[in-house]
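Example record

The entry below shows one chain as it appears in the dataset: sequence first, then structure tokens.
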Amino acid sequence: IMVAKIRTLDDYYPLFNRLSRFFIDNFDLEIDPKFQSLLEQDSKLITVLNHGPLFGPLAYTFVPLKIICESGNGHRSHISIAHRLFYKVPILKSLMKYISQLDKGVSFNELIEIFKTGNFLDFFVMPEGDNCNFGNGKDIQPFKSPRFIEMAILTGCPLLLVVQQGAEHWAYPVKLNDAQLKFFSIFPKTISRQIKRTKTLSIPTLPRKLSNLRVHIKVYEPKLKLSDLSEDKVERMQQLWSEADQVRKTMQKML
């Protein structure tokens, strides 16, 4: 499941450092002091990033990596996840393997096992997923799944919330009229529901250099504990969604 050669964050640093200079003129960072303390303890972390517009991750996903490496903690290694379809597209497969350090899409239980037993200290996730295609490109959109919360609880890891503001300039929000909304009602529910909620499509533009990017990093300890988790699957998901909603509200306040 894992790639043959596991890379450390230091291995990624040269590329992402060049990207940072290419896309960003200036960073405005607000960093929770607890973050450095966790790094010094070599703690496992689940990093939860907001997505912003479609190309938003190009602007800032390297920021926590850059901070980690420049603080002398680049020996850490990571895994991340992407849609399984990406691993089946020849052009994207190699890129996904490079980014995620996984050879293929994995199940939730496989992911838990890899993160708990492997030498990985970091897991990166963007829970908004393709909901980034709706809304104004800035607000935190509804999460696709709350299971990153379950992962944090099962592995005993804190969440590292990373929120950017600035990349919303890489999208053009298009308000939809009633006729257009009716047209989108024929689409799958995952799309039509978000269209009905936001009445806005986030149309990506070509990335251009940003004069300033604000990034806020905050450590979040889930209030939901392992002993609280219900054995009933339906009730358990309700618990996870409730905690995930608190995470989303916290990230919205960080903007």
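Notes for this example: The chain has a mean pLDDT of 92. The first strand starts at residue 27 and ends at 31.
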